[in-house]
Amino acid sequence: VQLQASGGGSVQAGGSLRVSCAASGRTFISYAMGWFRQAPGKKREFVAAAFVTWSGGSTDYADSVKGRFTISRDNAKNTVDLQMNSLKPEDTAVYYCAAGPQLRVGAQYDYWGQGTQVTVSS
Question: What is the pLDDT of residues 6-54, one digit of tens each?
């Protein structure tokens, strides 16, 4: 099982970036897929997740990115993207995609990608 992250890069504050993650080795159609990030000297933190539900799907976001970031998944392609708008310097971090079985609340992220750097300059 592999999660391959791509995208990211450097942008000025207020700009936009998109990071993508492609999963292979198994189907993640029933799994939650999410994004986490880790800034230098800080713990890894949750950013966003996309869940599968009977009504189609649901999403969850960290308060710090609500209204600016949008997560989307394509179950046919086994991919999950994170569109990041209105970026701030504090969004600078290595972004990791993850996938795992959904729990009653949240998910158990068993699979992780290698991370991609996002740098936002002021």
Answer: 999 999 999 999 999 999 888 788 899 999 999 999 999 999 999 988 8
Write a three-state SS string for 21-52. EEEECCCCCCEEEEEEEECCCCCCEEEEEEEC
- Tell me how far CA of residue 8 lies from CA of 81, 105, 110, 116, 118, in angstroms: 11, 29, 23, 6, 5
Confidence band (pLDDT; 50, 70, 90) for 111? very high
The residues facing 28 across adjacent strands are none
The secondary element (H helix, E strand) that includes residue 78 is none
Compute the Cα dihedral for 39, 87, 45, 9 and give only its sign. Answer: negative
Q: DSSP label at 90?
A: G
Nearest Cα to Cα of residue 103 among 58, 51, 44:
51
CA distances in angstroms from 93 to 15, 25, 106, listed in the order given: 15, 27, 22
